[in-house]
Design a protein that fits this description.
Helix content is 47%, strand content 9%. The chain has 222 residues and is mainly α.
C-alpha cells in the first residue's frame, strides 16, 4: 500500500504506533528526487512490513504538502512511476491511496497505475465529482498512460433504506458507470477498526461490512 495522502491515515491505520517512528517514507523519496541523490536508498528501503501477513506499506508524511509545489516546478510527475517500476518484482499487488483531491500526487498515481477505483458516497456532489474525475482520467490516458482504466466505482456509506442513495446509484448505473454490485454500508465498526489500528478482516471477520469488503476484493481478483 502506497500512501500519498499527507494526512497519513492509511499509514497510521496499517502501521499503528510504528508510523510515529522515523521510517523512510514517500516524502523522503521525493526529497531525494529533488536533490538528485536517489542512490542513498534502494527502492525497497522506503517500504515497511505491517503487523499483518504479506502487507507492506510505503508510508506518507505531512511533508508531502510542502514538497508538492517544488516537485511540480521541477517536473517530477513521473518519479512515482520510476519508484514503483523498481518495486514491481517484489509485490503481487500495489494499491495507491491518494488524498481526495486532484493534486500532484493524485496525478502521479494515475500516471503510473494500471487501473483506478473510484469511491462514491451517494450524493449529488459525489456524482458531479465522478464525471469530472472521468474527464481527467481520459486526459491522462491520452497524454501519459495509455493502459489506465477505471476498474470500477465503489458505492460507499450506502444506506439501503434511504431513497436518495438508491436513486443516485441507479442513475449512474443507467448512465453506464461501471459500478461494482457490492455496496459498502455504513457502520460504527469501521470507526472502531480505525481506533485500534486493526483492519476489519482481523478485528471482526464475520461482520456484515467485513463480508462486503471480502466480496468486493473477490471481484477485483477476477
Amino acid at each position: 500500500m502506497v500512501d500519498l495522502d499527507p494526512q497519513g491515515n492509511s499509514s497510521h491505520y496499517l502501521l499503528g504506533d510504528a508510523f510515529e517512528e522515523a521510517l523512510p517514507d514517500s516524502a523522503d523519496y521525493f526529497k531525494q528526487c529533488l536533490n538528485g541523490r536517489l542512490s542513498k536508498n534502494d527502492a525497497i528501503d522506503f517500504v515497511h512490513p505491517s503487523p499483518f501477513e504479506n502487507l507492506f506499506v510505503l508510508p506518507a508524511s505531512p511533508e508531502l504538502t510542502e514538497l508538492e509545489s517544488k516537485l511540480e516546478s521541477k517536473h517530477k510527475i513521473y518519479k512515482l512511476r520510476d519508484l514503483l517500476d523498481k518495486l514491481d518484482d517484489h509485490f503481487d499487488w500495489v494499491f495507491i491511496d491518494t488524498a481526495p483531491a486532484l493534486n500532484f500526487f493524485t496525478l502521479s498515481a494515475l500516471i503510473c497505475a494500471d487501473s483506478c477505483l473510484i469511491p462514491f458516497d451517494c450524493d449529488a456532489f459525489a456524482r458531479n465529482s465522478l464525471y469530472m474525475l472521468q474527464e481527467v482520467i481520459e486526459e491522462i490516458r491520452d497524454d501519459h498512460n495509455e493502459v489506465l482504466t477505471i476498474e470500477g466505482v465503489i458505492v460507499n456509506q450506502f444506506q439501503a433504506r434511504a431513497n436518495l442513495p438508491r436513486q443516485i446509484v441507479e442513475e449512474i448505473i443507467n448512465d453506464g458507470q461501471p459500478v461494482f454490485p457490492v455496496y459498502l454500508s455504513s457502520s460504527v465498526k469501521m470507526r472502531e477498526s480505525h481506533e485500534c489500528f486493526c483492519p476489519l478482516i482481523h478485528m471482526a471477520p464475520t461482520h456484515a461490512l467485513t463480508q462486503q469488503f471480502c466480496q468486493l476484493f473477490e471481484l477485483l481478483r477476477r
